[in-house]
UniProtKB/TrEMBL annotation:
UniProt xrefs under Gene3D superfamilies: lambda repressor-like DNA-binding domains
GO molecular function (one): DNA binding
Region of interest (Disordered), ranges: 1-21
Domain Cytoskeleton protein RodZ-like C-terminal, chain residue ranges per copy: 214-286
Pfam family, one: HTH_25
Species lineage: Bacteria, Pseudomonadati, Pseudomonadota, Alphaproteobacteria, Sphingomonadales
Transmembrane segments: none
InterPro entries in the cross-refs: Bact_Cytoskel_RodZ, Lambda_DNA-bd_dom_sf, RodZ-like_C
Name assigned to this protein: Cytoskeleton protein RodZ-like C-terminal domain-containing protein
Amino acid sequence: MKGNKEDQPTTSTDNRSEMSEKVGEILQRTRIAQKLTLDEVSRQTRIPVRHLEAIEEGSSKGLPATTYSAGFVKTYANLLGLDGVALAARFRQTMGEATKQQPIIEPYAPTDPARVPPWRLIVPCVIAGVIIIGGGILWNNHHSTPSVPYAQNLSTVTDSSNVNDNSNINAETENSAIAAVENQAIYSPSMTNTFLANATDATIENTPKAAVNLVALKPVWLRVYDGKSGPVLFEKTLNTGDHFEIPATAKDPLLRTNHPEALTVMVATRNLPPSILPSKKVKDFSLKPDSLLTAAPISPSSQAGSSN
């Protein structure tokens, strides 16, 4: 009995010493006592050496999640003949407290430069966009039918005829005058005959045979082009009495205008009837002499009248 009483203080002291030791220190001490190396333990337990070293050092760096790490401790302890369940629980508790004490700091992730388009890509895109928009505007202006020149020339005629009476006319009065000129029949048949006679005597007298001329009865905008996709031969506003002769080199002259009623077509010295042109907007209207004469043949009486 006396011997047993002497043994009790030694056992309690060993238990307190064992409890104060860390799990890694217990495993390391036992392994060294059994003269085992980490490589031998790794071969028997299939636990990587780096994980065994981290467990013995009590470091969580390089270890997997606590659940897996506790499993490693249990296997390691069982190999050494220790209580694997108890050591694994102590290890799990120790690692949990260490995790709580260490705040998790999430590093600031700066903006990835690869996600920001470089300037060498942005600048060409901007230039290409400007070129495309500018080209579209130019193409639209070239192929659209302008209506401003006709109104502008009408306003010019009105202003020149009334310059003494309306020298200080404002914008609203000018627009009203333009509308009034468009709605009134200011060109009488006698005026038309005078324009044709002047054009025939002064400018078309020496015109080669079968030459086509367009004579303006009033200010009118028109475009003449050689074929649908060919070059533009003429594009402007003809004033009253002006004419345009189709070049002899034109292979397929075509006409486009908003006011065909303001034009008279002449082949050589003969003027064709007004019905040769549509009453409304025309586009791709052929101005070939053969086509014009076929569409509106000239009667002998009209030829004689034009010659007189």
